[in-house]
Amino acid sequence: MQARNARIGFMLFGVYLLLYGGFVLLNAFAPETMEATPIEGVNLAIIYGFGLIVAALVLALIYGFVCKTGDEPSDDKEAGQ
């Protein structure tokens, strides 16, 4: 079970690494792109940054949901024993 959870964690980390790498590369090699203001005068760097925060939270929720263990006894089972 731990190996499976570790594999899932590394895959989700890889997804986030790609997102973050894109952010860094855009800032380093195309800063004029990040200066664009697509929404109400808010530049793309701010939107992308908040998107990274939201993505991290979503990936953490996905990890928590997928890696739940069914091996833990519930309170109902313990009360019946």
Draw up the topology in text.
Layout: H1 2-29, H2 31-34, H3 44-66, H4 75-80
Outline the structure in words:
With 81 residues, the protein is an all-alpha fold. It has one domain. Helix content is 75%, strand content 0%. The radius of gyration is 19 Å and the shape is elongated. The relative contact order is 0.13. The model has no long low-confidence stretch (mean pLDDT 88).
Q: What is the SS-derived class?
A: mainly alpha
Distance between the termini: 26 Å
In N-to-C order, the SSE pattern is HHHH
Tell me the count of domains. Answer: 1
Report the mean per-residue pLDDT as an integer: 88
In angstroms, what is the radius of gyration?
19 Å
Q: Low-confidence spans: pLDDT under 50, at least 5 residues?
A: none
Strand content: under 5%
Helix content, binned percent: over 70%
- Net shape: elongated
Number of strands: 0
Number of helices: 4
Biggest sheet, open or closed, and with what strands and sense?
A: none
Primary descriptors:
mainly alpha; single chain; 81 residues; 4 helices
Structure at a glance:
This protein is mainly α and 81 residues long. It has helices at residues 2-29, 31-34, 44-66, 75-80. The chain has one domain (2-68).
